[in-house]
Each structure stands twice: as C-alpha cells, then as structure tokens.
Design a protein that fits this description.
mainly alpha; 8 helices; Arp2/3 complex 21 kDa subunit ARPC3; globular
Length: about 180
C-alpha cells in the first residue's frame, strides 16, 4: 500500500513539474492584472500572458500545449469579465500563428525574435480591437490595445530571459523543431 502511495505521490509531482510553464503563465497573467500605477496611469501594463505564450510556442510547445493556452485564455476571460472565449481565441490565434512560423523564428537572433513578437503583438491588438468592436457593438478606442501591445514589446526581452531560465531548469534536452 505504501508503494502505491509513493508511486502516486511521485506521479503527482512529475505532473506538477510538467505543468510548471502553465502555472507560471497563469501567474504572469495575474500579475499583469494587478493594479499598476505606471507613470500615473499614462503607461499601460504589458500583456504578460501573451509574452509567455509566444515564448513557449517557440522554445517548447510541448511544455505549453494548445489546451493550456485555451485554459489561460479562459482564465483571463473569467478574471477580467470579458466575453467567454474572447482571450482564448486571441491567445490561440497568437499561439497557432507563432507555431506556424516557428521554423523562421528558431533560426533568428534575439532581435529577430523580438521583431517577431512585435508582429504578433500588433496582430493580437488589431484582432482584439476588431473582435471587441463587434462583440460590444460599439466603437472601441484602439489606442489602449495598441499601447498595451507596444509596452509588451518593450518588456519582451527581459521576460524572455526569465522564461529561458525556466526552460533550462525544466530540461537540458536540445530544442528540436
């Protein structure tokens, strides 16, 4: 009986270890939702979940599979009060587009990947603006969404380094396409 409990315990620890990128992405999402007073509210906060989703799509999609991206999007929907599925669709779009261009991103320097994230951030901001305008049936000011995208682009290199350290902790296996 003790052996079964021990096996079960180690299996649970292994599953939690494998889900660490999901937990970190959810934690980053919650941190981004915390009230920040950057320059008296003039500067918007970055979309930390988008940064993590982009990073894991390039450097380890096996660590953050599509179902986990969907969970992050739904968690953001429930936490922010946006329509259910809104951010799930946006994050799955960003994840899928990044995966489709993964071969291109993998061979680039840090600046090349950073520019790739800038493209994804602009596409997500534009998609959020268009989808939000249709969902809410009114004109939404695009400045805040594109501003958040710009701030996210600025924060990407710093957070990518932190996530790269996490990836190195998770595995020493070489990255493959």
């Amino acid at each position: 009986m003790f052996e079964v409990l021990q096996i079960g315990f180690f299996w649970l620890l292994q599953q939690m270890w494998r889900a660490l990128p999901l937990f970190v992405t959810l934690a980053m999402m919650l941190v981004a939702m915390a009230p920040m007073n950057l320059m008296q509210g003039v500067v918007l906060g970055p979309d930390l979940a988008l940064i993590a989703i982009f990073f894991w799509a390039i450097h380890g999609p096996e660590f953050l599979p599509p179902w986990a991206v969907f969970v992050v999007g739904l968690a953001q929907d429930f936490a922010t009060g946006s329509p259910i599925g809104f951010w799930a669709v946006m994050y799955l779009f960003a994840y899928g587009f990044t995966l489709s261009q993964r071969v291109f991103f993998r061979g680039r320097t840090g600046v090349g990947v950073w520019l790739g994230f800038a493209i994804i951030a602009v596409l997500v901001a534009a998609g959020s603006w268009v989808l939000g305008t249709f969902v809410y049936a009114r004109w939404l000011p695009p400045g805040e969404l594109f501003g958040q995208g710009a701030v996210s682009v600025i924060f990407y290199p710093l957070l990518a380094r932190v996530l790269l350290l996490l990836r190195r902790v998770l595995t020493t296996a070489p990255e493959t396409l």
